[in-house]
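re: that chain from earlier
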Amino acid sequence: MDLISFLGIAGTLLDLVRATPQLIHLVRARKSFGVSVDTSGTICVVSLGWTTYGIITHQPMVALASSFMASLFLLITIIALWLGRSIREFRVAPIWLAALSMASIFFGKTGLGLLLSISALISNVPQIRVAYKEENLSGLSSGTWVLTLVAGLTWFFYGYLQHDLTIMVSTFLQSATSGIIIALKIFKPVTEVASSQDLIID
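^ sequence. v structure.
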């Protein structure tokens, strides 16, 4: 097995499990404080975009990991809404769904790849915003973001060896924003009592 194949398999496995800590945490804790449904919804949309990109560029590992990840983040979004997040938080997800769809239809692989290269930044910014503004981050799983950081670095080196600039830019941004989210989770004190005012719904 060469290094590219190893990184592809490792990246796929990481993507298959990286949403699991957040999903388990939501189910067990039954609270969604600090979780951005706009981010989870946008990651679902972006993952579907990566599934399409993986298919049209003949990279089955990318397509497989992305399709599974889309399903998990959709489930996280639904559960977080059920636990009290507001549907009014959706700002980026619907816009990005339209943008990726149009790019794919009208500009094919090139247009889709261009938007996917910045999608990690677009999808993670709402989570950074929520983590920065909300005092209670007890519903946010740091495990998911640590795995997201590691997955981003793994796919970055995969993209480098494949000479795929789209994957490299996207995963660099994924790693950088994940690091910010981890830092906010670690260094921000968790309050014991959460109220409805903790949720960002403006």
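Residues 193-202 have pLDDT under 50 and may be disordered.
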